[in-house]
DNA sequence: TATGAATGAGGTTTCATTCAT
DNA sequence: CATGAATGAAACCTCATTCAT
């Protein structure tokens, strides 16, 4: 009795990923055993292994969904017309991050583990690298739009600025997850302060 | 060989930590077995366990050393008189980070794993939280000095700005470790661009 | 082979317990390693741990079976109608003990280890205490029946007598196991001699 | 620096045995590590091993002391002139047992472990067997004295009776240690009840 | 004589994965 | 398609004992 509906397959996959996410958020990748996932999902070992051929594959699928979920949002925000100001863009994205941390899936809690895994699992590292690069490119393009709109100097190194902006997000994630004493609003204020600063070394050029 | 000198004990400890660091950098915390550490250190199981009573304790010692090493440097830079400009400060710290990544110990490669571990190991989490908070406080004080020196507006939210500045470092670490296409110099240029930007939303006040 | 019959599961359990009993009788609880049990049972580590979640649980199951096996027999003998004479009751129970010592399982050889374990393992101690108390109660009831039948004085402290009678069994077990120079028949003769004695101190009352 | 006084040696031995006894009473033979004994005695590994060449030897020395301590007392009581009545003899010995259980050394708490060990350690088994036999012989002689004094029938099987009497002690020990709801006085009453019983099968002869 | 650092085999238990049913 | 019993390598850690100092 093969011929199972596409929809059924997708439901099963989701069921597994939801269970795995719950477990991973609760205990971490390594402390979560496949048995935990079987129990949480209410599925048998064999069933789970029909949909994912290894634990790593489950982790990758989850990471992929998470990155995807954020990427779509980032793309939307950064592509808005007219180009949104720096502090608005960052503020909205960090808000999104908090909701991805506290919401049901709590997906964002997996981020540090995914970074760590990417360092030691080549295949996963390639994947994360690729997505991260693409993701960051959105910021570069955003800065180019700022430049074109005259909101940053015409000779701005847009790539460098994109990297710096993108680089603020992991720092927010870590402070939010580990210390927990930061809000999107405060982070936004901090960014405004930096952008208002004149505390730069004399132009080296 | 009983009645051993204090120095001997310290050398043993270092020998273990060096071996462990090498293993952890190579394979990650979880993929490194205690056997790996015994082999790398050339010591027996019993000997290693005389100095550290668990694998976690080794990880903590390593993290502690690493955080300490960076903290001292950060403290030095941020406390300089006269207060160094933003881009200089960040530039020098990211340089330090690259040397802690590529140097012998390559300690910084452990950072993402430590963040991940801190999320799921309460004791370690407490420790990291505490150190991270103290570390970040240095940035807050630094911004206050900038303010006192008139290099940022007098009404700057120094705490928020400190958090934002501190928050740039994890982003640099991740890009440097995972993607590898960033340099302290480029990051510094990016920061200069942000600080020169006028792309802020109208003051909400 | 999933979806396995109840009977199959029971067979596995028995297979493990039989192997464990053999090992324990041969080498004792502590000298028997789990590897020994895997080898003796012909099962893998994982399989054994599916049925018992620790070595202690195996020991407890074995003790439980043994105590149960003896208790049923004791209950039968002591409840017989008409109430059996002292020497018959003790004689038959010690016979039972010898067959539980020499028979296939040789379960009774585990008794001293179980007593020792009960002293240092709280949970196991509670269990043994409870069973031993229930077991001993059968003797108390038996003496009450002797009293009601006029075979011991009407003012007999039946509880004390029950404890004394029950207390003869460990002494038989130890002499049988450790020295080996005693038989149920001889023990019975000894008991008859005590019961025929007039060597008591003057009634303290 | 050789030529250490005999007294010094003896003091060291005692120091070790006291520490070991404390540990064994607290945690049992197997759960007590040599490290525990080093710590409890305040001596170094090397020092302890100078006096006892193995853990087993310490256990044996302790068992030897304990058996000896009880044996001397038993010999005294059973050899009294005139020959003491049954219930007095047993009552006084069980009292002694309680004081050896609750006293400082709590030596008697080691008995079940010693019995268990004797079953699986041939050398120790031989030793215990020998001592137990000698010990029991005191009871046989005691019954012979009862017979000679006309306090038991002239045709009494004194050996059998001695074994039965001796056999009551382990049962007292176990009830006292494991259940804890028995006193020498109650045990004595129970014995009196048995000796007053007429509940014997018709003489098989 | 005394020290205590060192040994390293061996302890129990877990886990991702497979495959007969 | 689904089940879940079974595998067995490998994980972390302890321990009785030794011997250079």
Automatic annotation (TrEMBL), chains A, B, C, D:
This is TetR/AcrR family transcriptional regulator. GO terms for molecular function: DNA-binding transcription factor activity; transcription cis-regulatory region binding. Keywords: DNA-binding, Repressor, Transcription, Transcription regulation. SUPFAM superfamilies: Homeodomain-like, Tetracyclin repressor-like, C-terminal domain. Residues 33-52 bind DNA. PROSITE patterns: HTH_TETR_2 (PS50977). Residues 10-70 form the HTH tetR-type domain.
């Amino acid at each position: 009795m093969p011929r199972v509906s596409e929809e059924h397959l997708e439901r099963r996959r989701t069921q597994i990923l939801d269970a795995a996410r719950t477990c991973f958020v609760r205990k971490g990748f390594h402390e979560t055993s496949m048995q935990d996932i079987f129990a949480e999902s209410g599925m048998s070992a064999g069933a789970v292994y029909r949909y994912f051929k290894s634990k790593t594959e489950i982790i990758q699928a989850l990471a992929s969904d998470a990155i995807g979920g954020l990427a779509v949002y980032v793309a939307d925000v950064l592509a808005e017309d007219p180009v949104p100001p720096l502090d608005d863009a960052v503020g909205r994205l960090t808000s999104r991050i908090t909701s991805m941390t506290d919401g049901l899936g709590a997906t964002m809690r997996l981020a540090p583990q995914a970074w760590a895994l990417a360092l030691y699992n080549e295949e996963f590292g390639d994947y994360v690298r690729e997505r991260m690069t693409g993701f960051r490119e959105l910021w570069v393009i955003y800065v180019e739009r700022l430049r074109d709109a005259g909101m940053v100097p015409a000779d701005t190194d847009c790539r460098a600025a994109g990297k710096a902006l993108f680089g603020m997000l992991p720092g927010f994630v870590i402070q939010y997850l580990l210390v927990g004493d930061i809000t999107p609003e405060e982070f936004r204020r901090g960014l405004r302060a930096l952008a208002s600063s004149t505390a730069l070394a004399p132009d080296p050029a």
